Fold this sequence. Notes:
The chain is an all-alpha fold. 54% of the residues lie in helices and 0% in strands. It is built from five helices and no strands. The protein has helices at 14-22, 34-42, 48-53, 55-61, 64-70. The two termini are 22 Å apart. The mean pLDDT is 90.
Amino acid sequence: MNKPDGATYLGFNEEEIHAFISEMPIRKVPGIGKMNEIILNGLGINECKDIVAKAAEIYVNFSENAFQFLV
């Protein structure tokens, strides 16, 4: 996340980690490429916090493996 080396330190604080990940765009998640991003955006999922909020839509539109990975 931080330039130039990309290193970001998060302490062992659950709230800090949750806040950091919640606001992260879904495309920053390794394994979510351009096509999955387009599909997820179509479902109204733009940030990581949206993945949990819309888990039912993901379950219906993706395979079981993809659902397990995303959620």
